[in-house]
Amino acid sequence: MKKKNTLHPIMFAGTGSDVGKSIIAAAFCRIFKQDGYRPAPFKAQNMALNSYATPEGLEIGRAQAVQAEAAGVPCHTDMNPLLLKPQNDHTSQVVLNGKPIGNRHAYDYFRKEGREELRLEVYAAFDRLSLRYNPVVMEGAGSLAEINLRDTDLVNMPMAMHAKADVILVGDIDRGGVFASIYGSLLLLTPEERKRVKGILINKFRGDIRLFESGVKMLEELCGIPVLGIVPYYKDIHIEEEDSVALAVKAVQAERGKVNVAVVLLRHLSNFTDFNVLERDPRVHLFYTNNVDELAKADIILLPGSKNTIDDLYELRQNGVAQAILQAHRGGATVMGICGGYQIMGQQILDPNHVEGELEALPGLGLLPTITCMSGEKVTCQVKFCMCHEPSEMLEGYEIHMGVTTPLEGETMQPLNYMENGNPEGCKVDDTCMGTYIHGILDNPSFIDYLLKPFAHKLTEEASAFDYHQFKEQQYDKLADHVRKHVNLPLVYQILTKDYD
């Protein structure tokens, strides 16, 4: 077999947030894998509530875990050494190399003081990664031309300069102003930074691409670098999203012949990818809501994870959703909580050390005989477990949580699962009321079968089990095919192998 060329690192930087950098990076991770390379993703600093546990039991942003999956390699903290998990509009938990190092106010975090230590950490992570993989597929954050943050930037052009990466500037034509955003972004860079930008990628194009041919020529003449491709908008490819912005627009009308599943739309909802498999299951109609009338239509109500459980519980009590959940359960609906949702379902949540905020205690929904005490120690690990009623089958998931849940004094907890080491996990009152700390529990077909079983009579036709792993692999391949079709890959490879002065 012919030895593959060593490729330069490639960075997909954007003209702004939400231009599609994460998806484009995932596409190239799969393309390079298909072409015989061993790629790996890298984002120096990510801000997201959606995170994932590595095989070593450490925490990274979910987007880089998805990109690693597209690349066909295990995820690792070196792929996302710095993760910011927002707790409110001004404060984030800072996770460095997979472990939380405290909460920081945005103003303090972006000051020059202390930035060099973080810079050395993210540079070291990249250096380790680049020794193991070829190429490293890097992702920027927000706009690459935030000149007010230039001195403290860890993730865009300073990172590209350290990595000696070839930068591809991604612009979103769907939001408008693509000429100004691309040209203006380049003009705001220093001469040395501009030298690293080797091409332009137009993303989310709608309509006939031939109508933009003159636009391509104009951009190339203005910017002095090639337009590498125009990637059309798509609707039929499903890749896990990083942000929960679009969740509220999913249809909420109950459907006949399916099991209607409502995910409670929390303000600080995290790890919403827990519900991706259910959303694709042909037996299920899944929607996100915090509307009390819509919750009343649900057969199953799922309480998701939260980055600020007490604050979300307080809001559920204020807006009437807590009462609506209890009423729906009395009417026959199943209620299940995952992670923060599990904590919310108990009798009480305590926070004596103010891990989450000012409130030291708040009554839970009272559906489970449990009490949770918040602690500063974060649990992050991948797990194997079996359901109590089906001990012969081993399932998989992961935990990311703060807080310890124990039985209420004088009560006993019936576990929902048993861990691989035999320890009990979660709590179950009956088949319609349960909670667990395990994210990804709904990625296991047998657990979904168990959850849907009480509502089997509602289904109009038998549906086969849904293979989520196979589905995701197909989606990565479809994404790669879509991008291949609309990007000048020979020119990309030429850029990634050319020697520069």
Question: Can you put this structure into words, describing what you see?
Answer:
- The protein has 501 residues and is an alpha/beta fold.
- It has 2 domains: 10-48 and 60-73 and 119-238 and 474-497, 3-Layer(aba) Sandwich (Rossmann fold); 257-459, Class I glutamine amidotransferase (GATase) domain (Rossmann fold, 3-Layer(aba) Sandwich), CATH 3.40.50.
- The strands form 6 sheets. A 6-stranded parallel sheet has the order 2-9-1-10-11-12, with helices on both faces.
- A hairpin with a 2-residue loop joins β25 (427-430) and β26.
- It is globular and about 75 Å long.
The count of helical stretches stands at 16
The total number of structural domains is: 2
CATH topology term of the largest domain: Rossmann fold
Report the C-alpha radius of gyration, rounded: 24 Å
The SS-based structural class is alpha/beta
**How many strands appear in the DSSP assignment?**
26
Strand order of the largest sheet: 2-9-1-10-11-12
Question: Please, what is the oligomeric state?
Answer: single chain
Query: Regarding CATH, which class of the largest domain?
Result: Alpha Beta
The percentage of residues in β strands lies in 25-35%
Coarse morphology: globular
Task: Work out the helicity level.
Answer: 25-40%
Largest sheet: 6 strands, parallel
Uncertain ranges? none
Mean pLDDT: 91
